[in-house]
Amino acid sequence: MTSPTGSNPTRQPARRVNGLTTRGGFTLVELTIVMFVLATIMAVVVPYFVHYYHQARVDAAARELGTATQLARLHAITRQKTVWLEFDLDRQMYWLSRSSPDEALAEDALIAAFELPGTVRLAAVQTGDRPPRDAGQVATRFFPNGTCEEFWAMLRGTRSPRTITVWLDPVTARPAWID
């Protein structure tokens, strides 16, 4: 804002030092020191931020899988039909359907499909007493009475050492997360 005389009242007036006119401000050396301190702080903080970001992606993928199991249970109970949770470990995705994995997946049988982010990998899945699988397709069932086949799925970060196992209780069909 300028005054009626045209001057800026917030600006410091010029002063004379040793015959030179100077204005208040920072020197180039002061600005360089501040930039060096900020760059040092960023060099220390950024790697920690990236590390925690990738861990959070694994956590989010595990929560999404847990939510998908609850959706499968809800559909099985409300529709009074078996719902299948199918994993494709080669394509790194999973989906819920109303049709058996042995049948062709009809468009109306698909309830929801989920794809893992690129920084998270579905490392292994085990259903019931079968051995764990790390490739191919695996399926588990949710029954109309609210129960399901026991299963666990191991999610692993590709850019962090974070591994979370999602285990599903067969009686309550509720997920638990194991670090």
Question: In a few lines, what is going on in this structure?
Answer:
With 179 residues, the protein is of the alpha+beta class. It has one helix spanning 28-79; strands spanning 15-17, 20-22, 83-88, 93-97, 110-115, 120-127, 137-142, 151-157, 163-168, 175-178.
Give me the strand/helix succession.
Answer: EEHEEEEEEEE
Q: What coarse outline follows from CA principal-axis ratios?
A: elongated
Give the low-pLDDT segments.
Answer: none
CATH architecture: 3-Layer(bab) Sandwich
Quick one: CATH class?
Alpha Beta
User: Could you report the average pLDDT, rounded to the nearest whole number?
Assistant: 87
CATH topology-level name: minor pseudopilin epsh fold
**DSSP strand content:** 25-35%
For the sheet with most strands, the description reads: 4 strands, antiparallel
N-end to C-end Cα span: 59 Å
Description:
It is built from 1 helix and 10 strands; from the N terminus they run ββαββββββββ. By secondary structure, it is of the alpha+beta class. It has a single domain, classed as minor pseudopilin epsh fold. The strands form 3 sheets. Strands 5-4-3-7 form a 4-stranded antiparallel beta sheet. It has a 4-stranded antiparallel beta sheet with strand order 6-8-9-10, covered by helices on one side. A hairpin with a 2-residue loop joins strand 1 and strand 2. The model has no long low-confidence stretch (mean pLDDT 87).
Write the SSE topology.
Layout: E1 15-17, E2 20-22, H1 28-79, E3 83-88, E4 93-97, E5 110-115, E6 120-127, E7 137-142, E8 151-157, E9 163-168, E10 175-178
Antiparallel strand pairs: 1-2, 3-4, 3-7, 4-5, 6-8, 8-9, 9-10
